[in-house]
Design brief:
By secondary structure, the protein is of the alpha/beta class. Helices cover 48% and strands 15% of the residues. It is built from 17 helices and eleven strands. The strands form two sheets. It has a seven-stranded parallel sheet with strand order 4-3-2-1-5-6-7, sandwiched between helices. A four-stranded mixed sheet has the order 9-8-10-11, with helices on one face. Helix 5 packs parallel to helix 6, helix 6 runs parallel beside helix 11 and helix 6 runs antiparallel to helix 15. The longest helix is centred in the last third of the chain and has 19 residues. The protein binds manganese (II) ion (MN). The site of manganese (II) ion (MN) has 4 residues, from helix 7.
């Protein structure tokens, strides 16, 4: 039986991953979460991992106390995440933490020769070059968990990679599809947190509303599949049934479809290349009747155009806009800024900073720090 460690086990992807692991009888080696100790304690009692990690160090002693009657070793902080990522007994590490925090554990898992099921898109946005070159060097597989990237990965099976023309990345359009810039000025936090198709954590739900999520996925796809930016087309597909598609040299287009349920891509990443029954619903195309497609509005949704410009410029720009976005979303969720300001802040990064190179992990950390300082100074 496969041995799996899950980083970010209490989030939306983490809990669905545990459902998939339970269905297939996988052994859970370790679980880690940011700070939700109630859920983490329950998960630990149910799945009996060897290790449990808590990122927020203030929660460490409480968690240790609660699990004192078990044999589970309790770890904390970034060291804890990295220890879990490097465990010898892991067959695969599923990384579903939110944000830049996921980068170092991903690098550690790859360095330890462990395959990674990657749901943490910021990892590839901020450190795509480092992650992919280390994975190549260590001969480690990175299985995408993000539904669009899983779709592309599935569409690439059995075909020649060099005969690929382009990929077609689908976007739901989020809750504000069809809005103009004026209308975006009046949206509330409750509006932004209400996604039409997917039930997700707060950060990614806001990213879906600004379309930053699609921008991050554009960059993620570039690294995962070694593409040029001009080989990636984004289309708005409101129903989230086609999870993405690829076009080959003969203009044949192959798409992957399914109900919008993350358990399908999670299961494919954990069981690759096997396909067995998934704990979800079957797709009924006649229930949908119509599938629609449209071009995204790059002018209104500034985050999307900014992300594409950032990866086209290269260097530290993707990392800078990602960290600026993390800070801006945090400020929006804390009611410090309006929704419309997220796009304004993120796009201003392209004007404020000069090109700088990323040659190692330290460069990523430096870019992350200056982008966050820039946003904090802009807001205050
Ligand atoms: Mn996605």
């Amino acid at each position: 039986m496969k041995k799996v460690s899950i980083l970010g086990s209490t989030g939306s992807i983490g809990t669905q991953s545990l459902e998939v692991c339970e269905k297939h009888g996988f052994e859970i080696t370790a679980l880690a979460a940011h700070s939700s100790i109630d859920t983490l304690e329950n998960q630990a009692r149910k799945f009996k991992p060897k290790y449990v990690g808590i990122y927020n160090e203030n929660k460490y002693s409480e968690l240790k106390k609660r699990l004192a009657d078990t044999n589970i070793k309790i770890l904390c902080g970034m060291d804890g995440l990295c220890k879990i990522a490097s465990l010898e007994e892991n067959d695969i590490v599923l990384n579903s933490v939110v944000g830049m925090v996921g980068l170092l554990p991903t690098l550690v898992a790859i360095n330890s020769g462990k395959d990674v099921a990657l749901a943490n898109k910021e990892t590839l946005v901020a450190g795509g070059k480092l992650v992919m070159s280390l994975a190549n060097k260590k001969n480690v597989n990175i299985y995408p968990v993000d539904s669009e990237h899983s779709a592309i990965f599935q569409c690439l099976q059995g075909n020649k990679r060099e005969q690929l023309n382009k990929i077609i990345l689908t976007a739901s359009g989020g809750p504000f599809y069809g809005y103009n810039y004026e209308q975006l000025k009046n949206v509330t936090k409750a509006d932004a947190l209400c996604h039409p198709n997917w039930d997700m954590g707060n950060k990614i739900t806001i990213d879906s509303a600004t379309l930053m999520n699609k921008g991050l996925e554009f960059i993620e796809a570039k690294w995962l599949f070694d593409l040029k930016p001009e080989q990636i087309e984004i289309i708005v597909h409101r129903q989230s049934v086609i999870h993405s598609a690829v076009e080959y040299k003969d203009f044949a287009v192959i798409a992957q479809l399914g109900v919008p349920d993350m358990k399908i891509p999670i299961q494919y990443a954990l069981l690759y290349p096997d396909r067995v029954e998934c704990p979800t619903k079957q797709l009924s195309l006649t229930d949908y009747g119509t599938l629609t497609f449209a071009k995204p509005d790059y002018e209104t949704f500034k985050c999307l155009s900014t992300a594409i410009e950032a990866i086209s410029r290269g260097g530290a720009f993707p990392c800078l806009i990602n960290s600026a976005n993390e800070e801006a979303v945090k400020a929006f969720l804390n009611d410090e800024i309006e929704f419309i300001q997220i796009g304004e802040i993120v796009s201003s990064v392209l004007e404020k900073f000069e090109y700088s190179n990323i040659s190692g992990y330290d460069d990523v950390i430096k870019a992350d720090r200056i982008a966050r300082e820039f946003v904090k100074n802009t807001i205050s």
